[in-house]
UniProtKB/TrEMBL annotation:
Organism: Citrus unshiu
Compositional bias per record (Basic and acidic residues), positions renumbered to this chain: 42-52
CDD domains (alphabetical): AdoMet_MTases
Similarity remark: Belongs to the methyltransferase superfamily. RRP8 family.
GO molecular function: methyltransferase activity
Entry keywords, A to Z: Chromatin regulator, Methyltransferase, Nucleus, Repressor, rRNA processing, S-adenosyl-L-methionine, Transcription, Transcription regulation, Transferase
Pfam family for this entry, one: Methyltransf_8
Keyword Signal: no
Region of interest: Disordered: 1-67
SUPFAM superfamilies cross-referenced by the UniProt entry: S-adenosyl-L-methionine-dependent methyltransferases
Listed name of the protein: Ribosomal RNA-processing protein 8
BP term (GO), one: rRNA processing
Function (record text): Probable methyltransferase required to silence rDNA.
Length: 290
């Protein structure tokens, strides 16, 4: 071997032992990579476990509604409040024309109404159902402003259900101040939160017409509408007006926080002289934004 060549080799060996050899660097990086990969694998397993447990937990939790869902709910809540106010501030005839033009608005009103009712601890319709079950199933009923006809679906009695729109073959669509029933043909007339129109006395007049003598008149209304301290009607004045129409008072129930109940019976004999009845104004029941 030539002298110069051996010196060159020695220098190269020295250089290699001082500086970080390429292979070592790659070994180290390979080994680091292996450890990192192992750690990553462990982390991934941990993460997967975490994801699985949190996925299971979130499956149990009710899904948080998206912004879009919230906006939709807000919008439909707004539509409901607008329709509700409309029903309380127009006549039955106007309400009938309004929904006839756009029956889809009726569904919108009712889904909002169901939402509101879901916050009530007790529904007045259930109190009426219970009352009916305590009486003879042979009594014929007229449900004025029946909504989804829950009453008819809950009892054995023959029920004529009336509302502005009919989404069910059992519901007769009409303005309830003018039903197709014969005079003196039913035993019980029910108004469950349905004295909405500004001409509500016409609805009660219609009930008086279709009820048999001694027939029952059951009225459930939102309590605030009969609270004189907050601009509501005086319940005694309301009772007096109903009596002037040809009914006798049987009882009142103020025990519920949300609604009150009036029970009347149609008088056997009606006054031949019709006198001017002083009806108190019934303020609208406007629902707050939740
Ligand atoms: C607040 S909801 C109550 C529905 C049902 N009675 C209940 O308790 O679930 C009042 C209902 O009365 C109906 N209504 C209001 N005015 C009416 C009228 N003039 N003729 C027929 N239905 C009427 C409305 O369309 C609505 O369905």
């Amino acid at each position: 071997m030539k002298e110069g060549e051996s010196r060159k080799r020695k220098r190269r060996r020295r250089h290699n032992s001082n500086s970080k050899p390429q292979d070592q660097e790659s070994y180290q990086s390979k080994s680091t990579a292996k450890t990192t990969a192992k750690k990553h694998k462990q982390d991934t397993v941990k993460n997967n476990e975490h994801h699985q447990t949190s996925a299971a937990a979130s499956a149990k939790r009710p899904k948080p509604s998206s912004f879009l869902d919230k906006m939709r709910a807000r919008l439909s809540g707004g539509h409901f409040r607008m329709l509700n106010e409309k029903l309380y501030t127009c006549t039955g005839k106007e309400a009938l024309d309004y929904f006839n033009e756009n029956p889809a608005l009726f569904d919108m009103y009712h889904s909002g109404y169901q939402e509101q009712m879901s916050h009530w601890p007790e529904l007045p319709v259930n109190i009426i159902v219970k009352w009916l079950k305590d009486h003879s199933p042979s009594l014929v009923i007229a449900d004025f402003g029946c909504g989804d006809a829950r009453l008819a679906k809950s009892v054995k009695n023959k029920v004529f259900s009336f509302d502005l729109v009919s989404n069910d073959p059992s519901v007769i669509a009409c303005d309830m101040s003018n039903t197709p029933l014969n005079s003196s043909s039913v035993d019980v007339a029910v108004f469950c939160l349905s004295l909405m129109g500004i001409n509500f006395p016409n609805y009660l007049q219609e009930a008086q017409r279709v009820l048999k003598p001694s027939g029952w008149l059951l009225i459930a209304e939102v309590k605030s509408r009969f609270d004189p301290n907050t601009g509501g009607a005086d319940p005694n004045k309301f009772s007096k007006a109903v009596c002037d129409l040809g009914f006798a008072p049987v009882s009142k129930d103020f025990s519920n926080k949300m609604f009150i109940m009036f029970y009347f019976k149609k008088k056997e004999k009606q006054n031949s002289k019709s006198k001017e009845i002083e009806w108190p104004e019934l303020k609208p029941c406007l629902y707050k934004r939740r």
